[in-house]
């Protein structure tokens, strides 16, 4: 396998949602720079929005909401553990980002006067902007990449970052999942936009690729940032979603809610006041399932026929368009049938919960020159639009960072060690198929890490993960495609271990089901009103520590603080 | 450490009458996020090679001749 060497000014890893915006904004700011956008799949159709998006979940549109209201809502929804400056950096740019996308041809719902038609789905404020024709958002972004002359490269799985002897980022290494070529890319700044750790837990179906997240997002970025010495944050704040059972995709309450759809239990009773995804909502969902009131359903059968048709024309066309085929296969018609829901397997995701690489309000990680944006970074509940804004922030800041800098000096031993690690599964004569190791690992994640979290179980889980780490030395890849899968297993294992270690460290319960510990069932603000951070220690093992929550820009009143703890409907409402 | 084959039913079917891969078309192969579609050298057409489908649809939507049909993988149906 050949070694390819490339030098660029700014390397963007991940061409889904945040990555293209990082490249676009860097190129707009400094057109002469060499910006490379690298993807594991194909930038045209990669990431979470390959088939578009059905709504903006966090639009801050004047007249409907202010940045202050939004930052406070997310602070409350995330039980206080937020860097408000980071959320505010998104909030103040939210509407401009929508207008820019609009100018590129992305369609948003508007009212009769041409203003954005924002709906209420969150517990407190109104932030959901429907995109009934949002299926081509990715195409519109791709056109901008072409227009600006951003260089893209596809089918490269990035496996490790290069760190200079001065601690500054120096580039990345990647393997081509078709040719097997090894790429050494030197860069003065790197923007990581590799998405969530979406292949962490095993879906109940047992199908490795039946995940909520695009399964390309295996957690590579979490692993790479960790090994580069970056600080990761909130990895104990898992992503767990209410999804269509077996299909394992969103139902999606953000689309159906404004039309009158809602979640009910087996008795047809409403039990949560808000369908907005939060840990507190998931805890009520779990209690309903476990308490004998399940299954839980999405109810649309009371809606008028034309309303259901409108819903179908969104849900069966954008984001996850095979929803319609799944329902058809089981004879489910929204007009007369309830949609059976369940609780997903766990994942790590900043965009939906708050588990990600620590970044400040400029998308800077703790490694100089390394940025993170999108689902990979820890800016809570950032979703698609937040990914775009943070990608843009990273791209623009990277331009300033590299000014007057040359490449950091890299010890060639770093490259050689990685080349050996990456090619070992191809070179060994025989061994365990990567998918088999992945299946076992992710099944163990379910058995030992799925909340409610139990100390003894997580400790046992860590022992099993250590055993599986030894199995990494026995994986056999028969071709570059299997090699990509093998390297993903390495990343998934890192994520599993980090998630367990961070969860054990925080000895309280917080974020509803996301970090519900049976041994420490109460929230303990006196000791744990802090971020839990994790980084690679001097001994090469994960090291946890607390990071103070920065002073709030917008103080939360005592009466508002627990609003998300009061999501349960006290007296069941008749459907 | 010998291994055995473990077959799975194919969930992406290709109409070989419509598929124009032999003319150089690679659209579906290019857009698949999990890279599971390959050129079958035996007949010059596209086929699914790995049981790693996310049932996301770019392959079907971008095919210029509507030759592909994506079904929900059997385990999820």
* Secondary-structure content class of chain A: alpha+beta
The secondary structure category of chain B is: alpha+beta
Backbone shape of chain A: globular
Named at the architecture level, the CATH assignment of the domain at 412-548 in chain A is Up-down Bundle
In CATH, the homologous superfamily of the domain at 412-548 in chain A goes by the name Fumarate reductase/succinate dehydrogenase flavoprotein-like, C-terminal domain
User: How far apart lie the N and C ends of chain A?
Assistant: 63 Å
**Helical percentage of chain B:** 10-25%
Q: Give the fraction of residues assigned to helices of chain A.
A: 25-40%
CATH class of chain B: Alpha Beta
Which stretches of chain B are poorly predicted, pLDDT < 50 over at least 5 residues?
Answer: none
Distance between the termini of chain B: 34 Å
Figure out the total of helices of chain B: 2
Mean pLDDT value of chain B:
97
CATH class descriptor of the domain at 412-548 in chain A: Mainly Alpha
Series of H and E elements of chain B: EHEEHE
């Amino acid at each position: 396998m050949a070694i390819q060497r490339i030098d660029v000014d700014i390397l963007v890893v991940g061409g889904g949602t945040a990555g293209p915006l990082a490249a676009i904004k860097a190129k707009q700011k400094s057109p002469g720079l060499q910006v490379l956008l690298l993807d594991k799949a194909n930038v045209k159709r990669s990431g979470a929005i390959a088939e578009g998006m059905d709504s903006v979940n966090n639009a801050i549109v004047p007249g409907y909401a202010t940045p202050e209201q939004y930052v406070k809502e997310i602070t409350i929804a995330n039980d206080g553990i937020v860097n408000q400056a980071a959320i505010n950096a998104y909030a103040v740019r939210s509407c401009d980002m929508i207008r820019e996308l609009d100018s590129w041809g992305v369609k948003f719902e508007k009212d009769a006067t041409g203003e954005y038609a924002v709906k209420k789905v969150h517990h407190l404020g109104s932030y959901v902007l429907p995109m009934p024709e949002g299926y081509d958002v990715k195409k519109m972004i791709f056109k901008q990449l072409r227009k600006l002359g951003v260089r893209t490269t596809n089918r490269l799985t990035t496996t490790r970052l290069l760190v200079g002897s001065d601690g500054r980022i120096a580039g990345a290494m990647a393997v081509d999942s078709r040719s097997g070529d090894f790429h050494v890319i030197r860069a003065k700044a790197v923007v990581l936009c590799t998405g969530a750790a979406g292949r962490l837990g095993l879906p109940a179906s047992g199908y490795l690729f039946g995940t909520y997240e695009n399964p390309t997002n295996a957690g590579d970025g979490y692993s790479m940032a960790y090994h580069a010495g970056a600080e990761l944050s909130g990895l104990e704040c898992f992503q767990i979603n209410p999804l269509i059972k077996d299909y394992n995709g969103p139902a999606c309450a953000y689309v159906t809610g404004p039309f009158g759809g809602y979640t009910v239990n087996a008795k047809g009773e409403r039990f949560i006041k808000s369908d907005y995804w939060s840990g507190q909502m998931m805890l009520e969902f779990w209690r309903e399932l476990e308490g004998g009131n399940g299954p839980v359903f999405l109810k649309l059968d009371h809606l008028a026929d034309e309303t259901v048709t409108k819903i179908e024309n969104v849900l069966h066309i954008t984001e996850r368009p095979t929803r319609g085929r799944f329902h058809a296969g089981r004879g489910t018609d929204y007009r007369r049938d309830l949609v059976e829901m369940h609780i997903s397997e766990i994942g790590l995701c900043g965009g939906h919960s708050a588990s990600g690489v620590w970044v400040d309000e400029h998308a800077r990680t703790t490694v100089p020159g390394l940025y993170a944006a999108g689902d990979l970074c820890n800016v809570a509940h950032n979703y698609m639009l937040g990914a775009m804004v943070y990608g843009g922030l990273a791209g623009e800041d990277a331009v300033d960072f590299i000014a007057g800098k040359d490449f950091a000096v890299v010890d060639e031993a770093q490259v050689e060690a990685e080349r050996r690690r990456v090619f070992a599964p191809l070179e060994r004569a025989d061994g365990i198929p990567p998918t088999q190791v992945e299946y076992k690992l992710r099944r163990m994640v379910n058995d030992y890490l799925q909340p409610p979290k139990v100390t003894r179980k997580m400790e046992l889980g860590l022992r099993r993960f250590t055993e599986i780490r030894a199995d990494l030395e026995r994986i056999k890849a028969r071709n570059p495609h299997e090699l990509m899968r093998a390297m993903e297993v390495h990343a998934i294992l890192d994520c599993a271990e980090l998630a367990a270690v961070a969860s054990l460290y925080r000895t309280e319960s917080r974020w509803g089901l996301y970090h519900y510990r049976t041994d420490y069932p109460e929230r303990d603000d006196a000791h744990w009103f802090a971020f839990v951070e994790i980084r690679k220690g001097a001994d090469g093992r994960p090291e946890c520590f607390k990071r103070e929550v920065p002073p709030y820009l917008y103080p939360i009143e005592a009466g508002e603080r627990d609003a998300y703890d009061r999501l349960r409907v006290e007296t069941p409402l008749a459907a | 450490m010998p291994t055995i084959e473990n077959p799975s039913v194919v969930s992406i079917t290709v109409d070989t009458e419509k598929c124009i891969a032999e003319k150089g078309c690679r659209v579906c192969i290019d857009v698949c996020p999990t890279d599971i579609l390959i050129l079958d050298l035996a007949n010059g057409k596209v086929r699914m090679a790995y049981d790693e489908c996310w049932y996301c649809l770019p392959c079907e939507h971008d095919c210029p001749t509507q030759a592909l049909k994506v079904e929900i993988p059997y385990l999820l149906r």
